[in-house]
User: What shape does this take?
Amino acid sequence: MRLADRRRLFSYGIREIWRRLCRRSAGIRLAVTSSALQVPDRLIVAPTDLRALDSFVAEEILEDRFPLAGRILETFGESPFSIELPSRAFAERLHSFAWLRHIRTNKTEATCAHARQMVSDWIALHGRRPKGIAWEANVAAERVIAWLSHSTVVLQGAEAGFYRRFMRSLAYQVGYLRKIAGCLPEGETRLRLRIALAMASVSMPARAAHIRREGIRLDRELERQIMADGGHISRNPRAVLNLLIDLLPLRQTYINLGHDLPQKLIPTIDRMYPALRFFRHQDGDLALFNGASSTPASELMSVLRYDETAGKPFKALPHMNYHRLSVEGTTLIVDTGHSLSAELSRSAHAGCLSFEMSAGRHRFIVNCGAPKYASRSYRQVARSTAAHSTVTLNETSSSRIVRSRFAGPILLGGVSEVEVERWDDMHGNDWLRARHNGYVREFGYFHEREIGLNVKGDKIKGHDRLFLPEDKGPETGPFAAAARFHIHPAIVLSRRDEESVVMRAPDGETWIFAAPGLDVLIEEDIFFADVSGVRPSQQLVIEFSPPETSEIRWMLRRGD
Assistant: This one.
């Protein structure tokens, strides 16, 4: 590791240590002052929750089986908060109480009493000391939103004693979020925390000045994190949907109660919708870049039905650094950017110049996506360049994933500059050319990718080129390069000849991938972003060896 990278890693580690100390001291200060905590006597409103409901989950929970984070925990009558949990992801989902929404599918007196008992258990076992996974910022913010949104479930038929304990715990958690707000790095968690505090300010009795103050703080965070093109600074397409799911109910709650809305709230939501549509493929799912995983169709549709800006998606998101080529039901989405900071790179992927392609009602070429609930090794593999539909040199990622003891896995070095050109040729075909410097330091080569979509939307041409900077000669000997094209699991591959492969969708939509003069290999693959979890898939691979072969051409055309 170079000295400059060591210094950046050390600097980031120091900032993270300070943040941890800040959060710990916030918990201590809150515990000291908890006796003077002002506890509201009631809730004014329960904001809507737009997330998908599942009656099966509700039935399982009533039988003391918890299907969360890809695992099932059977408690045999014990509280799930008092026993060992199967994974960290499971613990986060359990302590977030996001599963409360499923209880609404069978909102009987018995189910509400069951949910109330679990809330009571949590308060008794974890509610008095801000410590552990239950009090991590993302979990605590989600829990506050869930308790507010589903208070009608928890409080239906509640006795006065439980009502007071519930309100006291809720006020305590809101106070904790308020104290740690300045201790968090930039990113989705910090924005969700501000959403939770704004939601609490209007859901519980509060002075107008307090509601206005939380609205101003939310405005500031929206301005920092939502870019001018509507994308989120994480560059994760799924983050846009996740945030809209919380921002839309917050907007409606302000309106329903007659409060003045934060000035940035409505303009920001209106700006985010075109970005969300930009990443939507022909099958209705979102593109898999920078941490995006599977998207339940019901959640996406529940958000899109409030879209008042509906129109044709933009050709590019210049601040988020993505391009979209789309004609006659064929869509290409290309990543032409890199992580904006070390803090934001903790969930970023090394997928610069990767692309996804969909046609008809199906995705054909994808990235592997991010696993929702998987081991650290799987998550690391999913972030590598090889898990993206782009070129990899010597099985090395274009940006290195470095694990810091305090900061976690962040991206260092690699891609720092991306040059992009976009034009229409004389026939009306749409062309994109982009290059990045991610491999210059280690291998001495730039990677340039050119993609063109014809005016009929039935032919795609691709050109990948590795070239040296003008002022330098070769710095390395021959090495292995591979252009990967990850295929969606729903697509069936069949070989035509050594140079071409047929890709067939379940409804018969067919595309032919060809690389004249080159061997196109079909290899086993893993798709991380399926709704059902990690599943096997296939990939097309073109291997070549610079400097002997430094460029390849490939094409896709719709079959008969």
Summary: The first strand starts at residue 65 and ends at 68. The longest helix spans residues 3-33. The two ends are 52 Å apart (CA to CA).
